[in-house]
Design brief:
- It is a single chain.
- It contains 5 helices and 5 strands; from the N terminus they run ββαβββαααα.
- By secondary structure, the chain is of the alpha+beta class.
- A 5-stranded mixed sheet has the order 2-1-5-3-4, covered by helices on one side.
- Bound molecules: FE2/S2 (inorganic) cluster (FES) (2 copies).
- The site of one FE2/S2 (inorganic) cluster has 12 residues, from loops.
Length: 158
């Protein structure tokens, strides 16, 4: 089978797998990285949201062959290391606001939140209510109100 190399949470990894296998299965089933959750497999629910080169993306929708050896994939497991701490400030805000209910969607929610704040900063501004309105991550438990509060609080911490 073909080999594919990319950077995962700061370390180069190589997998031996068919070209068209989507990255979410590679992460979860081959590499044992289970933070990104499987919800729809179609790029709709956002449960698998992770970062590629600092931007949010859905690994359920990306065939492994699309990754280059220099591409940096960050999952919730690697998020704290991006700020050199045990927990990312957004994760601390999540705890402070007691956001999670069943927790299933929450890794994706946090990764989306961090990417949103980064995007706003790159545009030279703070996160707004309009940014929060754009978030499409589905939460079956209905934690949306606490998510919004935590993102605003988390954004102030870094
Ligand atoms: S599992 Fe990836 S968006 Fe739903
Ligand atoms: S906390 Fe249960 S799906 Fe969001």
């Amino acid at each position: 089978m073909p080999e594919h190399t990319f950077i995962l949470n700061g370390e180069s990894v190589t997998v031996d797998i068919e070209d068209d296998v989507r990255l979410l299965w590679v992460l979860r089933d081959v590499l044992g990285v289970t933070g990104p959750k499987y919800g729809c497999g179609l790029g709709v629910c956002q449960a698998c949201t992770s970062h590629i080169n600092g931007k949010a993306f859905n690994p359920c929708s990306v065939p492994v062959q699309d990754l280059r050896p220099t591409d940096e994939v960050t999952t919730i497991e690697g998020l704290p290391a991006t700020v050199g701490k045990e927990l990312h400030p957004m994760q601390e805000a999540w705890l402070e606001y007691d956001v999670a209910q069943c927790g299933y969607c929450q890794p994706g929610q946090i990764m989306t939140a961090v990417a949103k704040v980064r995007q706003a900063r790159e545009e030279g501004r703070e996160i707004t209510e309009a940014d929060l309105d754009e978030i499409r991550n589905v939460c079956r438990c209905g934690t949306y109100h606490r998510i919004r509060e935590a993102i605003v609080a988390g954004a102030k911490k870094y």
